[in-house]
Structure formats: structure tokens, C-alpha cells
From TrEMBL:
This is Predicted protein. GO terms for molecular function: ATP binding; protein serine/threonine kinase activity. It is a single-pass membrane protein. GO terms for cellular component: membrane. It comes from Hordeum vulgare subsp. vulgare. Its main location: membrane. Gene3D superfamilies: Gnk2 domain, C-X8-C-X2-C motif, Phosphorylase Kinase, domain 1, Transferase(Phosphotransferase) domain 1. Residues 5-105, 111-216 form the Gnk2-homologous domain. The lineage of its organism: Eukaryota, Viridiplantae, Streptophyta, Embryophyta, Tracheophyta.
Length: 650
């Protein structure tokens, strides 16, 4: 396998495993199995799990449909050597993809990370090129999603003598709808990444698209993959039925089949009729379900599409011990949340609409329709809902570590959150918010992003929850206005709190507050924290930042694994997000890049909104002499000074 075929590796540095342990043995066994399994499979795809919890290794291998078995195996064997010592990795070759992890990811369209590579040449006739390319790639996406191998390739004419060649495919573990959604997102990235270029590749961990002005795939193998021959009809008793005796035998068999099938069909029809009558009688029982009119809940199409998510009320009552206080996890604006255990042992969280809540069917619809359609590892997963006997309930996956605020703001527990945990939480929330704003089919403004709405899985990975206040837009509408201000003070952007104007930048402001809370380990309020002079968090952070040292903000963080440069960058990004002028705040795409790239120079932030009156004048003067700062202090640039990409501690 040529080294040039490797075009990206995703090997997170925070997923190391202990060498010589059980997990390594399981992973080595997995990586030895996958290349041969994928190469020998007709689909060019294989997945497997080795070992038992907590040392399970999950992996999949996928080869392009036009690649032969020997090239496929060589590609995957080479990929298996690229991320030694990592629990999680994704290796991208032109001909294959290899992915493994210590947690299951099968069957989920992972669009949290996108990688792209653009042809350096510019396209001729760029306007026509964009039009023809968009039509081609959209067509290939839908064809791939409906094909047996989740693969499609084709061409479109650019000029009488020039074609655009395109390819789309998904990993073999995806359902058709998930494949189509992943590829649709990939196509939307073309104008953002490779606009005007003659070619490009865009891939997530679950799907891939490529286009060029030359044929980059094996046309004959591609045609065979897209149009596999039908399986041959089996011969009866293995004999040749082409002669007279064979034809006579066929006629006899046909008569026997006809005499057998007619009574069977009549019996089945009668059974179906009886079953239909019984179901209709059951559904006509009075007072069993709440009647919801179209005026209450809007277009019912979305709810009908979610019927498979419906739970029976008796099931949820049994799971939560009839919503007992012992199972109560907490209470929010929507109502109380209860822990439950289904009959198969699955743990769930059940959110129950309060009878006195001002929220109602509209919020219920928002939760069900929005969350059911959103699939991202940093969003809480909706399992279903129940609308029965005047109860309105939402069923979510249960996350044992509950919400971020329960740990972050608890003096006895916050030491559990090392800096590695905190940085991963900051990054994960950012990726989840980016998905809501830009990568999902609909632009979604959360409007109530806060620490209590961030849930933590067993590995302290964050998941954004509670979409009851989410505002739904069409793709072209990105700013709205409301007379009903809903959210949590302390996290609300000034333009929203004062004027009811909300946009993606409103969520960016809330995210900035959350980032600063995570770094400092304290709430954004006026509590008497040591060294804060009774200030709110934003004022305290700005005061430290303006004076050139932010080391005093880190008292709430464990000393284990401290990374001063990462902390400083997070504080810098947080201050950029909470600027008073919404236009100066970065979008979430820029925020994610700022957090993950050490080479990006960050702009100088302006003072945050809601700065405490009377302190602003003092905040611009530096009273800390850096020459006398303690060793290990983390420093921020003075106001109006140029920002530096990476500042290391003394």
C-alpha cells in the first residue's frame, strides 16, 4: 500500500490504554480479524467486537466498492498500524477506512468530525460547475442510500468534452436513512470547503464523497457494485428442467403449489381480519389517550413519523415504581425527571410534564420531533415518549453521572473533574452545539444552554439535553424575535434578555459563560468566592485577564494533568464568546477550530456584557507585576494588546 494513499489519521491523544493489558489483547485480536474479514466479504465491510466489559474493543473496516480484495486487505492491514496505543482511532485511506474504539459506535451516523481535501486546481466555468456538481452529488447521495452496498458513482456533463466524476458511499453498518442524512451533510460542506476547486474529498467517520474532473475509480468494478446480478433461480432437485419431462414436472409442481397456497391465503386473511377487529375494539376504549388536535400540535406528520417511539404508560409506571420520590432525579421547567428500569434491564430517564407547567403540547412536540431526528454523540438520545391518560412523558437514555452542575459546583466532588475531563467536556459541548447550528438538517437554537442541561456519561463525556426551549428555524432564517423570554439568567445574551432577539450567537454567549464556569469551577453569580470581591464570574475573569494573570481562576481544578496553555486558550475563547456585541462573537465552527488548533491566532476580546458598574475603569489597569508572579502562573494578554496563539507558563 503506497504511503500517499493515507490522507488523514484521527488518533485522539487522550485515549491511551495501558500496554500489555486486557484491552490491548482484545484490540490486537480485533485488528487481526477485520482486514481479512472485510476483504473476503462481498460488501467489502466487516465489523466485530472482542472481549467483555469493561475491556471490549469495537471495530469496523470498510473498503471502497471498486477496490479488489487484495488491495482492500493490504490497505486495512496498513491502517491497523497507524495509531498504536490508542483506544479510539479512525484511519482514512483513499481505498479504505478502519475505525476502532472502546465504546460501541455501530449503526450510528457519526458526523461529529469532518475531514476534507481539495484539488488545488480551480474549476473552469465556476458557476456552471457548482450547479452541475450540486445536482450530481445530491443524486449520488440518494442513490447510494438506497443501494445494497450504500455506494454510488456517476458523471454529469460540464461541457461537451468534459465531465464531472463523483462518488458517494457510507459505512456498511448504517441504515439507508442515516446514510442519506450523512451524505446530505457532506454535500453541504462542498461550498464551505472546496468552493471553486476542480475536485475534493469530504468525509466523516460514517460517510464519504469525492468528485474530480477525471475518472478516479474503476468504472467496470463500480458498475458491477451498483448493479449486482440477480441470484440464479434454484433448480428443483438439482435437475435440468429444460426438456419435456422437466416442463411437465414444473407444471405438476405449479398445480400442487396452487392447491396449497389458496387455502393458506384464505386462512391468513381470516386471521388478519380478526386481529384488525380486536385492535380496533381496543383502540376505541374511552379515556385511554389524550386527544390532540392539529391546532394544539401543528402539523401531525412529524408525530406520525415518531409513532415507533411511543411507550405504554403502564410500562413507564412499572419502570419508575409509579414515579416514586425515591426514583426522582430532579426537577426543571418541564417538570420532574425520574430514573426507571425497563423489564429488560435497560435504565432510562423519564421526564414528566408538570400539571402546572406553562409548557405544554408545543414543547412536547419540540422535544419529540427535534430530539428524535438529531443523532450526535454529544446530544442526549431520546428513546421515546408517552401521551396517555393525560400524562405527557419523554423517555431518554439514562446517564449515571447526571448533570454537570452536580459535580462542577459541588466542593466535595469537583475534584473528580480533572483538567482532561473539563477540556473534553468543553470540546464536546462545542461540537454538539455546532451540530445543532450548522450540521443538522434544521438550524436549531437551544436558548437554555447551562450546566444543569449538560449530562455526563460514565466516561464524563458531555451530552446536551433539554430541547423544550429550542427554537426551530428553516435553513434560511437564522435570527428571530420573541416577546416571551425563556431561559436562565446568567447565561442569557444581552440582546435576548433585553430585547427578545435570539440567534446562534445567543447560544454562543451561553456557551462562553459555560466554558468560563467549567474552567473556574464556580457559577456565574455574585456569590462570595475567595478573591472575587463579591463579583460575578465574568467580571472576575475579565479583571484577572486584564491584569495579565489568570492563575487565580483555577483553584477549583485538580492539579492532575494541568495544561496551562489549554486553560488559557479556553478562557480566551470564553471571553470572545461573551462579548456584548453579538457580531463580534465567533460562530461555533470558529470556536471548535480555536479550541483544537494551536496554530490559530485568537483576536483580542472586548469587555464582556453585564460588566459590574464601577469596576470597568480599574479593570483596564494592570496592577500585577509579571516579574513577581508566582512560578507556574498562567497569564493572559493585557487589554488592547496583541494576542498570542500559545502562552506557556513560567
Amino acid at each position: 500500500m503506497a504511503a500517499a494513499d493515507l490522507w488523514n489519521t484521527d488518533c485522539p491523544k487522550d485515549t491511551n490504554y495501558t500496554r500489555g493489558g486486557v484491552f490491548q489483547a482484545n484490540l490486537d485480536s480485533l485488528l487481526a480479524f477485520l482486514p481479512a474479514a472485510a476483504a473476503s466479504a462481498t460488501s467489502g465491510f466487516a465489523e466485530n467486537t472482542t472481549g467483555t466489559a469493561p475491556d471490549e474493543a469495537y471495530g469496523l473496516a470498510h473498503c471502497r466498492a471498486d477496490v479488489n480484495a487484495s488491495v482492500c486487505r493490504a490497505c486495512l492491514e496498513d491502517a491497523a498500524t497507524k495509531c498504536p496505543g490508542q483506544k479510539t482511532s479512525t484511519i482514512y485511506y483513499d481505498d479504505c477506512l478502519l475505525r476502532h474504539s472502546n465504546v460501541s459506535f455501530f449503526g450510528v451516523a457519526d458526523t461529529s468530525l469532518w475531514v476534507y481535501m481539495c484539488n488545488p486546481d480551480n474549476a473552469t466555468q465556476p458557476g456552471l460547475f457548482r450547479t452541475q456538481l450540486g445536482a450530481l452529488m445530491s443524486n449520488l447521495s440518494s442513490r447510494a442510500a438506497s443501494s445494497p452496498r450504500l455506494f454510488a458513482a456517476g458523471t454529469v456533463d460540464l461541457t461537451p468534452f468534459l465531465k464531472i466524476y463523483g462518488m458517494s458511499y457510507c459505512m456498511g453498518d448504517l441504515a439507508g436513512d442515516d446514510c442519506n442524512r450523512c451524505l446530505d451533510i457532506a454535500v453541504t460542506y462542498i461550498p464551505r470547503t472546496c468552493d471553486g476547486r476542480a475536485g475534493g474529498r469530504i468525509t466523516a467517520r460514517s460517510c464519504y464523497i469525492r468528485y474530480e474532473l477525471y475518472r478516479f475509480y474503476n468504472a467496470q468494478a463500480t458498475e458491477a457494485a451498483m448493479n449486482p446480478p440477480p441470484p440464479p433461480a434454484p433448480a428443483i432437485n438439482g435437475s435440468d428442467n429444460s426438456g419435456p419431462a422437466g416442463r411437465a414436472g414444473n407444471n405438476a409442481m405449479a398445480k400442487i403449489a396452487l392447491f396449497v397456497s389458496i387455502p393458506v391465503a384464505i386462512a391468513l386473511l381470516m386471521l388478519l381480519t380478526v386481529a384488525f377487529c380486536l385492535c380496533k375494539r381496543k383502540n376505541n376504549k374511552p379515556h385511554e389517550h389524550v386527544r390532540i388536535s392539529s391546532a394544539d400540535i401543528g402539523d401531525g406528520e412529524d408525530m406520525r413519523s415518531s409513532e415507533s417511539l411511543l411507550y405504554d404508560l403502564s410500562t413507564l409506571r412499572a419502570a419508575t415504581d409509579n414515579f416514586s420520590e425515591e426514583n426522582k432525579l430532579g426537577e426543571g421547567g418541564f417538570g420532574p425527571v425520574y430514573k426507571g428500569t425497563l423489564h429488560d434491564g435497560q435504565e432510562i430517564a423519564v421526564k414528566r410534564l408538570s400539571k402546572t407547567s406553562q409548557q405544554g403540547l408545543v414543547e412536547m412536540r419540540n422535544e419529540v420531533v427535534l430530539v428524535a431526528k438529531l443523532q450526535h454523540k454529544n446530544l442526549v438520545r431520546l428513546l421515546g415518549c408517552c401521551i396517555q391518560e393525560e400524562e405527557m412523558l419523554l423517555v431518554y437514555e439514562f446517564l449515571p453521572n447526571r448533570s454537570l452542575d452536580k459535580i462542577l459546583f459541588d466542593p466535595a466532588r469537583r475534584q473528580e473533574l480533572t483538567w482532561g475531563h473539563r477540556f473534553r467536556i468543553i470540546q464536546g459541548i462545542g461540537r454538539g452545539l455546532l451540530y445543532l447550528h450548522e450540521d443538522s438538517r434544521l438550524t436549531i437554537i437551544h436558548r437554555d444552554l447551562k450546566a444543569s442541561n449538560i449530562l455526563l456519561d460514565p466516561d464524563m463525556n458531555p451530552k446536551i439535553s433539554d430541547f423544550g426551549l429550542a427554537k426551530l428555524f428553516s435553513v434560511d432564517a437564522s435570527v428571530g424575535n420573541t416577546s416571551h423570554i425563556a431561559g436562565t439568567y446568567g447565561y442569557m445574551a444581552p440582546e435576548y434578555a433585553l430585547h427578545g432577539i435570539f440567534s446562534a450567537k445567543s447560544d454562543v454567549y451561553s456557551y462562553g459563560v459555560l466554558v468560563l464556569e467549567i474552567v473556574a469551577g464556580r457559577r456565574n453569580n455574585f456569590s462570595q468566592y475567595p478573591g472575587t470581591n463579591g463579583e460575578d464570574l465574568l467580571t472576575t475573569v475579565w479583571r484577572h485577564w486584564s491584569r495579565g494573570s489568570v492563575s487565580g481562576l483555577l483553584d477549583g481544578c485538580s492539579a492532575d494533568g494541568l495544561q496551562p496553555s489549554e486553560m488559557l486558550r479556553c478562557i480566551h475563547v470564553g471571553l470572545l464568546c461573551v462579548q456584548e456585541d453579538a457580531h463580534l462573537r465567533p460562530g461555533m465552527a470558529a470556536v471548535v477550530v480555536m479550541l483544537n488548533s494551536r496554530s490559530v491566532t485568537l483576536p483580542v476580546p472586548t469587555p464582556p456584557a453585564y460588566l459590574v458598574p464601577g469596576r470597568a475603569a480599574a479593570l483596564g489597569r494592570s496592577t500585577t507585576d509579571e516579574a513577581h508572579a508566582p512560578a507556574g502562573a498562567v497569564r493572559g494578554p493585557p487589554v488592547n494588546d496583541a494576542s498570542v496563539s500559545d502562552l506557556e507558563p513560567r
